Amino acid sequence: MAVSTGLKYLKKNALPHQWCPGCGDGIALRSLLRAFEELQYEPNQVVVVTGIGCWGKADNYLLTSALHVTHGRALAYATGVKAANPDLHVVVLMGDGDGATIGGNHLIHSARRNIDLTAVIINNFNYGMTGGQQSAMTPAGRITSTTSYGNPERAFDLCALAAAAGANYVARETIYNGLALKNRIREALVKKGFSLVEVISPCATLYGPNNKMNAPVEMLRWLKEKGVPAAKYEKLTDLEAEGYFLTGKLVDKNVPDFSARYREIQLRLQNGSAGKTK
Amino acid sequence: MQGNQAMAEGAFYAGARFYAGYPITPSSEVADIASRQLPKLGGIYMQMEDEIASIAAVIGASLAGKKSFTATSGPGFSLMQENLGVAIMGEVPCVVIDVQRSGPSTGLATKPAQSDFMQIRWGRHGDQTIIALSPASVRECFTLAVQAFNLAEKFRTPVVLAADEIVGHMRENFVVPGPGELPVIDRLKPTVPPDQYLPFNFDGDGAAPLATFGSEYAFHITTSMHGVNGFSSTDPANATRRIAHLHRKIEANRDEIVLTKSFDVDDCETLIVAAGAVTRTARAAAQRARQAGVKAGVLQLVTIWPFPDKEIAAAARKAKHIVVAEMNYAGQLAGEVMKVIGNSAKLSRVNTFNGEVMFPQAVLQAVLGAGGVAAAAR
């Protein structure tokens, strides 16, 4: 089988893209589009919902259907799209500001509701588009344009959060390992119910230089070293684990999704047994 | 039937099959009914985590082809404002029921008010406009819900049904219109080949046909400034056309959108302007005024936005005295009426904001006082 390229989903006349040199968004987009191609998705059967932020601009380069919305609310829009037409493949692209900070409430409720969406959250540890401010994913002690003396707050463990909230599928990969990322996104797309793929990504313009990583390649080396699978991660002490990223598939369940459960209610009502439960 | 129920039933009559909302008094009955009825109709009810998510899901569902609505009250409406801007900018049909209650903030949470007219019109940032209708009876709750969907679908815009707690919780008898009795309008869908479809058209007075996510058309809708292809654009000339069109499609069709009802205005020397439940107060006051020898009439603003300026000017032609009665302090409607009549007649305001129904006596006092100061009526 030929290697997938994802090019059939790419709006080539919109290129070159707007992302900075060394940004991970291009690799993430390619991984997403390759997964689409391998799953033989038709562009009109895919709705990509994007929020505000660097990664939220991804819809500019897509030939699928797309809905570009307000900061933090992409999951809520996507919930309406998916609930109204469960046959659609609905993918939600958010950054750590969009998906984990201003939109954190929608993330946990989407996971709890187990609505069949695939959320791909790119975590580059800061707000890239507005100049590198602290987000809910900025680790303690790190420097951003609003934490010049070190971040006094902690970051979420986003995958643990989604898992605790009830997501059917949770995974984390780094931009360094594009092939694994493509495979995780593909698994997430196929999975019924809520899926989250957290993508650890370099912001080589702001977060890197603010934290003693001055070149994109230094950031990739950092991701290569710090992104480790469970077998290796579990051998680390809690103190050692700080700064490492547990990668791979972290949750894989098959709890019925929102639309399946709602369909059951609709059918029960049509059969005239309103109010009864199993 | 209760007003809130009538609005829900009107929505179903219009073909609404998706509701996403967050409970809030005095609108909650709409959610209760939607949750019970929609799954029977093959539709979807979703209870969201907040009003921000509610209107977002409504917009998403509308783009996926379901006529969609939500219901809330003032505080929830405030939370919906940013995403209502998305529906305006993206030209996505949807209906928001705002059962107005006392404020500011939590205020007298279960009590009526008409203090959201201006937040409905101006509460969002940016250069935008909106349609709002206000029912004065349970029957109008039903018929205007249908009309709200018709306008939303025809003009690809959000429409607000600006009810108030009195109408929302009022119970009245009316004959529910049978199928086909009221017109039901569905959005235009594209007929061109998929590679030629443009989701927007900035020329002319109407809205472009709207495709459905999942149909043969792959298309983009964005809340950012965009060209007719739905992709973002920063071109100043394009931005000028985009914004002007959003306004023009409402302005150019205002005669079709603006509805008013007149009661004894032909010979009236005193015209009472009112909306929603206060219309009933005003009509009672006008009757008593006529018994007292003052030729009073009532103009009900069924459409609040766009504002019925021409209709007010016509009804006020012979009037020497205009009385604007409304349940808010600042005179949100009165200020707009003032813009219409200028110095051509005397204008009095009757404003109540105590959480109670406005009584006819307050309006009558202003009518008979022929210049009664607002404070007197308060």
Core attributes:
heterodimer, A: 278 residues, alpha/beta, Rossmann fold, two-stranded antiparallel ribbon, 36% helix, B: 378 residues, 2 domains, 7-stranded mixed sheet, 5-stranded mixed sheet, 14 helices, disordered C terminus
Secondary structure: elements and pairs:
The complex is a heterodimer of chains A (278) and B (378).
Chain A: H1 25-38, E1 46-50, E2 65-68, H2 74-84, E3 89-95, H3 96-102, H4 104-113, E4 118-123, E5 126-127, E6 133-134, H5 158-165, E7 169-174, H6 178-190, E8 195-200, H7 207-210, H8 216-226, E9 227-229, H9 230-233, H10 238-241, E10 245-252, H11 258-270
Parallel strand pairs in A: 1-2, 1-3, 3-4, 4-8, 7-8, 9-10
Antiparallel strand pairs in A: 5-6, 7-10
Chain B: H1 3-13, E1 16-21, H2 28-37, E2 44-47, H3 51-63, E3 67-72, H4 74-89, E4 94-100, H5 117-122, E5 131-133, H6 138-155, E6 158-164, H7 165-169, E7 220-222, H8 236-251, H9 254-257, E8 260-263, E9 270-274, H10 278-291, E10 296-301, E11 303-305, H11 309-315, E12 321-326, H12 332-341, E13 346-351, H13 360-369, H14 374-377
Parallel strand pairs in B: 1-2, 1-3, 3-4, 4-6, 5-6, 9-10, 9-12, 12-13
Antiparallel strand pairs in B: 5-11, 8-10
In short:
The complex is a heterodimer of chains A (278) and B (378). Chain A has 278 residues and is α/β, with parallel strands linked by helices.
Q: Give the overall average pLDDT of chain A.
A: 96
Order of helices and strands of chain B: HEHEHEHEHEHEHEHHEEHEEHEHEHH
Distance between the termini of chain A: 46 Å
Q: Pair with the most extensive interface? A: A-B, 41 and 45 residues
Low-confidence stretches of chain B: 371-378
Our Rg estimate of chain A from Cα atoms comes to: 19 Å
The CATH class of chain A, by name, is: Alpha Beta
Name of the CATH first level of the largest domain in chain B: Alpha Beta
Number of strands of chain A: 10
Compute the number of structural domains of chain A.
1
Question: Which architecture of the largest domain in chain B would the CATH scheme give at its second level?
Answer: 3-Layer(aba) Sandwich
CATH superfamily of the largest domain in chain B: Thiamin diphosphate (ThDP)-binding fold, Pyr/PP domains
CATH architecture of chain A: 3-Layer(aba) Sandwich
Oligomer: heterodimer
Instruction: Order the strands across the largest sheet of chain B as they lie in space.
Output: 2-1-3-4-6-5-11
